[in-house]
Amino acid sequence: MPRRPRPSRAAAALALALLVTACGGGSDPAAPDTVADPGAADLELAIAPASFDVAVGTGRRLLLAVFTADRERVAGGTVRVRLGHLGAEAGGTAALGAPVTATWLPVPGLDVAAPATGPDVVSGGVLTGVYDARVDLDAAGYWGVLVEAELTDGRTARGRAIVPVLAEPAATAVGDPAPDVPNVVTADVLAGTAPAAELDSRLRSADEPDRAAVLHTTRIPEALAEGRPLVVAVATPVYCQSLVCGPLTEHLTTLAERYGDRAAFVHVEVWRDFAAQELSPAAAAWIRTETGGNEPWVFLVGADGRVAARWDNVLDTVELEALLAALPPDA
């Protein structure tokens, strides 16, 4: 699937090197920080922004994967995040704002335990979660990010990254009408009008058992017409570049069984034809942008047919369940 363009390695390196001149600690934690020398950390971190569609606004969701230079994961607990606007180009200097707490968010469905306290360095480079920060962004362009952590073993750790910020969200956003493009359901596969892989990329034939059958019975336009809340997951379990789509889809089958009396649950397979790089029409309606798209996404649609919440890449299942629990059960 085409990906949103990212800064070149050279531009990123320049921005991060120059951002060092704006990092450090002042006596007033609420004031921008322009101290030239932040001091040495015990451990340098590699920070990988994991958000797909960050735009100007308040309380924006910023996901960060944190690793050591040896690609070991940092997991559990919380880290501090500070941001500064670099401008229209990925370079220059930035005054960093006040620290924001980012909380460990595990990938739903993996059932991999994080450190009981954390943050801590754990073996293996497989992504099992990210740190979730809610940040205020008042300008489009590039933002420098400084992540600081106090590890459970007493070491200090620090890493930097840059994040492109859009003027407006590119994918379907909170407040937008939910796309009413028809999605493939099990009945289409059984009738021979759609291939099984267009229902779920794990399927090769209509006779193969469908592990996510509960997510493949509802047509989105029909649910919208009925005024029924919807949870829509746009994911491709086989071809997912972040490798979290399969566990996510499995987890949503559990939520569908628990909250199916409050909302309809739908999985939309990203690809109509992966080899031809052709998106399914339903997926394209939700996630296609001018520069491509990313997966997975989860959207919560209210009874009014508008998107009430959305989660890119790693679902905050606690947040989703709280919203579902607040919905009235079916009469």
What does this structure look like?
By secondary structure, the chain is of the alpha+beta class. The protein folds into two domains: 9-165, Sandwich (Immunoglobulin-like); 186-325, Glutaredoxin (3-Layer(aba) Sandwich). It has helices spanning 9-19, 186-191, 196-199, 220-226, 245-259, 281-287, 317-325, and strands at residues 43-49, 57-68, 73-75, 78-87, 100-106, 120-122, 129-137, 141-150, 156-165, 230-235, 264-269, 271-273, 278-279, 297-301, 307-312. The strands form four sheets. It has a seven-stranded mixed β-barrel with strand order 1-2-7-5-4-8-9. A hairpin with a 5-residue loop joins strand 14 (297-301) and strand 15. The chain is globular. It starts with 8 loop residues before the first helix and ends in a 6-residue tail after the last helix. Residues 1-37 have low confidence and may be disordered.
List keywords for this structure.
18% helix; 331 residues; Immunoglobulin-like; 7-stranded mixed β-barrel; 7 helices; Glutaredoxin; 4-stranded mixed β-sheet; disordered N terminus
Q: Any idea what the shape is?
A: globular
Strand proportion? 25-35%
Instruction: Identify the quaternary structure here.
Output: single chain
CATH class of the largest domain: Mainly Beta
Q: Would you tell me the overall average pLDDT?
A: 87
Write down the secondary-structure element order: HEEEEEEEEEHHHEHEEEHEEH
What is the number of helices? Answer: 7
Radius of gyration: 21 Å
